[in-house]
Structures are given as C-alpha cells and as structure tokens.
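Researcher: We plan to redesign the surface later, but first we want a full-length starting point. Tokens attached.
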C-alpha cells in the first residue's frame, strides 16, 4: 500500500492530493483490469474444452460412418461369395457348353469383385485402427485438459474473490482521497482518466511529459517546477506535475528504465551471438 504524500508547504496541496489519488487509481485500474479479464479467461478454458470435445465427437462420428461402410462392404462381399458358391453348385447341372462358359464367366467376375472388396475391407480396417488410436489419444488429452481446466478455474475463482475484496477496499479508500481534491479539478481528472486508461495526472521530467513523451514548453515546465499550478500537456491532454516534487517515485522510475535498457542490451548481445 502506498503511503500518502507528506505535507510540503512549497507545493500546491492540490498537486499532492491529486498525486495520492492518481497512485491509488493506478493500483485500482490494474486490479480492475485483472478482475475484468477473469470471465474471459474462464470462457477461454471452456472454449478450449469445447473445441477438443467437438473434435473428438467428429472423430467418433467418422469412426461410426467408417464402420457402417465396412459392414455394408462385408455384407456385399458375403452376397458375392454366396453367388459364387451357388454358381459352382449349378455347374454340374448345365447341359451345354455355352451355358457352362457363361456360368464360369459369372463365377470369375463375381469372385474378382469379392476379392477386390476383401482388399477394400482390409484397407478400411487399417483406417478404423488409425481412427480408434486417434480417438484414444484425444480422449486422454481431453481428460488431461479437463483436469487442468478445473484446477485453473478453481484458481481463477479464488483469485476473483481476492481481487473483488481488494478492489472494494481501494474504492472505499478512494472515496476519502477525492474529498481532498477540488470538485472541478476532480471532474477534469476523472474525464481525462477515462480517456487515457486510468492515467490522468502524469509526471514531467527534463521538459517532457512522461505520459506521451512529448516536449513540454519551457514556460509551462517552469510553472511545474514551482509547484503552484496544474497545467495540461498540450499533446495528450493529461494534467501535469513536476517529477522532482516526488523524488522517491522519480528514483523508482529511473531504476525501472535502467533495468529495461539492460534487458534490451542483453537481448541485443544474445541476438548478436547467435
């Protein structure tokens, strides 16, 4: 929790009050954003499960269709084999060479059809085995994903409850902080905050607005250093304060920037070495 800014007689009290409010609102915005993302995360888990379940159902349907086709082929092959057997039985009853020749052609043709169908059935059986293997893998994957999803959902729901309590506490604290801010200034601040993702009161350092990185006119910057007024950034519209009024915050910012540059340099060195 950030401690309230200490009283400083050389700085406009509204700057101090607005700074405390902005620090509080920044934390509140972060928590509210995390909280608002939880329903989408829960939906994504359900969507992943549903997608895999649909894929599994499609494979099962494909297997059922393949098995039905296999049964139809087996029935047709059995019918062809029956015809061959009946035709062979008739051979002893034929009376002419022509009838015998016709019967032999029928037997050979039907036998070739039955043999071809047997080969087709063998291929279908290979396909069935492959689909059954995929189904087994997908069932195992679905069970694993379902277990992970349930565990993740439990964590998200628990996190949701914790965040809701934190947000409630911060909102209650905010109610006290806004009492220190001039009503007209507060309305302006809230309007800008909604437009800029929660950041309405931005520091300025080295004649630059750190909200948009654009240059602050020299005269305006001089006013900021005096700590008497609260001007706007003419580029992004945020309210401004001089970073030097809050040296601890400025030091934290410098450390973060140094760490960021160090990470970029390391990334550049790693990239050059590959």
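Model: Full-length starting sequence:
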């Amino acid at each position: 929790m950030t401690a309230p800014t200490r009283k400083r007689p050389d700085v406009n009290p509204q700057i101090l009050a607005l700074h405390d409010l902005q620090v509080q609102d920044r934390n509140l915005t972060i928590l509210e954003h995390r909280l608002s993302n939880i329903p989408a995360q829960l939906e994504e888990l359900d969507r992943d499960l549903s997608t895999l379940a649909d894929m599994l159902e499609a494979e099962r349907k494909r297997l059922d269709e393949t098995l039905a086709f296999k049964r139809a082929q087996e029935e047709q092959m059995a019918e062809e084999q029956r015809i061959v057997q009946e035709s062979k039985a008739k051979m002893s009853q034929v009376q002419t060479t022509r009838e015998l020749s016709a019967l032999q052609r029928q037997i050979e043709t039907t036998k070739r059809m039955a043999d071809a169908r047997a080969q087709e059935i063998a291929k279908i059986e290979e396909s069935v085995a492959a689909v059954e293997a995929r189904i087994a893998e997908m069932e195992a994957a679905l069970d694993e994903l379902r277990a992970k999803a349930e565990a993740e959902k439990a964590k998200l729901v628990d996190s949701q409850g914790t965040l809701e309590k934190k947000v409630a506490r911060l909102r209650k604290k905010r109610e006290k902080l806004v009492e220190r801010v001039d009503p007209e200034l507060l309305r302006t601040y809230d309007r800008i905050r909604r437009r800029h993702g929660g950041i309405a009161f931005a520091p300025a350092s080295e004649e630059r607005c750190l909200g948009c990185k654009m240059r602050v006119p020299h005269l305006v910057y001089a006013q900021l250093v005096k700590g008497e007024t609260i001007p706007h950034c003419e580029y992004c519209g945020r309210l401004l304060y001089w970073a030097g009024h809050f040296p601890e915050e400025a030091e934290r910012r410098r450390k973060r920037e140094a760490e960021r540059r160090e990470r970029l340099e390391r990334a550049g060195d790693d990239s050059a070495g590959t």
